[in-house]
Amino acid sequence: MKDLNTVLESTKKKYREIFVQSLEVIQNRIDAIKPQGIVTDVFETYPENSDGDKWQKAVLDMLLNDISKEILEKWTKVLAYRKEFHCKGCATCCNLACSEFSPEELQEKARNGDNFATQFTSIFVPYNTREEAEKIYPEYLAMLEGKGEVYFYHCPKLNECKRCSDYENRPQICRTFPDNPLDILPESCGYYPWKQEVEPVVLMLHSMVEIIEYYKEKIPQKKD
Ligand code: SF4
Ligand code: SF4
Q1: Beta strand 151-154 with 97-99: parallel, antiparallel or unpaired?
Q2: Sorting pLDDT into bands at 50, 70 and 90, what band is 223?
Q3: For residues 164 and 117, what is the distance between their CA atoms, to the nearest angstrom?
Q4: 91 CB near ligand 2 (under 6 Å)
Q5: Best of 86, 93, 170 to mutate for ligand 2, by most ligand atoms within 8 A of CB?
Q6: What is the pLDDT of residues 87-130, one digit of tens each?
Q7: What are the phi and psi torsion angles at 27 (to 5°)?
């Protein structure tokens, strides 16, 4: 049985390494537009209209426009590349869906207009026992052990031949699954090679978004 906790730890380690590289790349771009004569960093408070103030504005513009646009373009390519891969019909995602929310909480969310909860509750029903869910993907349940309350669901529309009995009307969440390469996928999934291939890029994009958020919060911003 594959130990998904080890896989998860290795992904976290990779993320930390990629984060450091992304930070260096972004910091280099910030330094490249630093006006001559400024020795302090971009988090300093500079007088209005000073070179430092203009630099901060240019940095924010670069982070929130140029770099954010580059991130979006790369993410769009990742999603477009997904179309090269196809569902192999292993039925794992129909047979096992997990949520931190109980059936009652999901129903409540759906009543309050939550689109994901509305779709989810339109197809998935809870397993009666954890053991039933465990038979579908034991590695996954072992990984979740001790990580807080998780509820397990399955879709009764899956027929005995592991086919969707209402394929034409399946909701969007079925049509787009998996929509995030960072999701844990079984190796039987047709999108697993996509995940493997694009994961380093997605980790890099994720780290850049996190770094931009940090800079946005820490750079003093004056109203124009
Ligand atoms: S509606 Fe069909 S595709 Fe969606 S989870 Fe159920 S069986 Fe699977
Ligand atoms: S886990 Fe992947 S291959 Fe299996 S049914 Fe879902 S999308 Fe298809």
Answers
A1: antiparallel
A2: low
A3: 20
A4: yes
A5: 93
A6: 999 999 999 999 999 999 999 999 999 999 999 999 999 999 99
A7: -65, -40
